[in-house]
Amino acid sequence: MFGLTLSSMAPAFVDYRAILNTEMSMIGLFPMFQAIGIFCGSFTTVIFRYINRQVLLSALVVLQGLGTIFQPWSTSLWHLYVCIFVYGFGIGAWNGTNNVIIIELWQSRSPSVLQFSQFMYGLGTVLGPLLDRNFVLGEQICPGVFPKDCTTGPTTIGTTMSSLVSQSITANFSGQLYASESKCDQECLSYDRRPQLKIPLLIGGLLQILGAVMYFTMFFVKRYHFDKETQVEALESEEQKERYRKYVPRKTIVACIVIFNATGIMSEMIYMDFAPTFYQFCSVRLPASEASEMFSYVGIALTIGRFMSVFIAVYLKPWVMITYQTLIVFVGFIFQYYAQYDYKLLLASSIIICFGYSSIFICLYSFVGQYMKVTDRMGGLFIGSYNLLYMPLAYFIAKYVEIVPESFVFLELACVCVAIVAFSYVLYSVRNVPNDLIRKIAPVGGH
Fold first, then answer.
1. 399 & 374 share domain
2. Which pLDDT band holds residue 291 (cuts at 50, 70, 90)?
3. Could you tell me the sign of the dihedral formed by the alpha carbons of 138, 143, 144, 147, in that order?
């Protein structure tokens, strides 16, 4: 359900701008507050030793569902920011722990199960934009009417739309409005897009709450408890532990993976949040419905990539999967810079990018698990790291994606380059680790 609700929000950014009568730069704070929420939520992993993990996660996911449902009801920007902060807080808590729970449960089989979990998330990213498609208007003033239909003089689409939505038919903004015999009549100018926008987010939010209720019910029906006795330990003797401390650069691994998360995984988050907006403002200038449709195709590529990774993870080592997928993303962004002038090329480049992103994040968990125990706190650190840099960048992207759409691609490409350097360095650092010290499972340390 996370995939469904998260992918339902991005196509609605332009609609939120119209509903709240504001600028795109202010809507850019929407994902920034989401990132702040995720960052704060990631720290809940610290208190799981005091509060039952299953109960707390259930409560937070319920709040996340409510944060989803009430977004279209917002009458002020701060209402919208509060909703997305609550939503993000739930994501931070869940993502920081869900993968650790899977590793605890499945041990040596966890890589494929982790990929399957991401495959289910990918299914949600396909359904979200499809659910949005018939309910978002984007640059339209009302269904079928664009700003150009309401003016006789030259206009700038970005500024004209917000002005037309907020002003009466007698207003004059970058050109004289048609006062009669026009598609742009009083009824169109006063069109309320809230009721339509409430439908997809209500569906997504209720499904999230349903999942949380089922998860909470399991606490009483079949309570989950991690039995450390079932954990396979790779280190048994003091001699092995000493060799482990000598050969395994723990701090370097953690630092480089944090940097990879803060740039490479953060770039995935940016793409999932802003790609539909980019489609609407780049040279092709797709309508909101077509941008949502394209984003659903991108979700299919993401899902197929994750489904394939379920089986690929059985045969390839995590570092191999991370390497080739990151390079696919790098090539995809270079392609997208030149592809933004044609619908089919833009679609092809987006599919390449999201196919590359499909399972990098989960592979990072498996990679780290080969060299050290993966704990709830470490999961929280990984989740928090990729939201730390996202906070200021979200505002920057929203401010310039409308004016200079290429800045979106440049920023994404720069982040991927930093991630490539960080991962190259960590591979260099572990090159001399003896094979007997590389764990054959992705071990965990519980809480």
1. yes
2. confident
3. negative
